[in-house]
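User: I need a structural model of Helix-turn-helix domain-containing protein from Paracoccus aestuariivivens for a docking pre-check later this week. Nothing fancy, just the predicted structure tokens so I can convert them on my end. Input:
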Amino acid sequence: MRNFVARKLSNGAALQDSDHARLDELMRHWKAIPAKSDIISQGDDPEYVHAILDGISCRYKILPDGRRSIMDLLIPGDFCDMNIAILGRMDHSIGTLTPCRVAYISRSEIEELLFDFPRIARAMWWATLVDEAILREWLVNMGQRRSDRQMAHLLCELYLRYAAIGWPDEFALALTQEQLADTLGITVVHAQRVIAALRQDGLIALRDRQITIPDIARLMEFSEFNPDYLHLPPES
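Assistant: Understood. Predicted structure tokens for Helix-turn-helix domain-containing protein:
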């Protein structure tokens, strides 16, 4: 079974067996990190590039008043800090929202991928461009959509991102209301109301404290979701 990093990168380039073999080797070096822990902190000069193998992490900043702003959600297959070898110092923190397995890849190994594995290099460049497209969509989502449509739009995005890596289980989002509030830039009370309204309308369901989606097409219609910014191949 291919690892989720390879599965994600396969959406950006036609990887061959040698590419998969090298990625499999790199993903064998991982650590288990509990929830609510930093993988890397703002101001750090990291030695390794990190990839999420399991669980959900996030990019975040802490505001002067102590509030947290989540700027990106990282799921299995995502690199956390691919370009840190160029930038050097972290300008934000990356922390776990759920228990995670995280691969540690040295800068020299990343350079090897870029110079010796052209298909992986192209896929990594694709992944970076998609990250930028997601950021642009998040700016539109937070600035122009109602809170209920913001939440629905985020859930649609995560549903498709999980589908694109061949996630073997049914989509079930295990984030807390506080984590979702920090992601959407709303209060926890407001997030509770939005979740309750979406649930009452049958757009989402809750099972074992996890959000599931009974009808993704209906949720996409409600949130006016257009998946073009994810730049996925037609079969994903």
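Before docking, keep this in mind: The mean pLDDT is 93.
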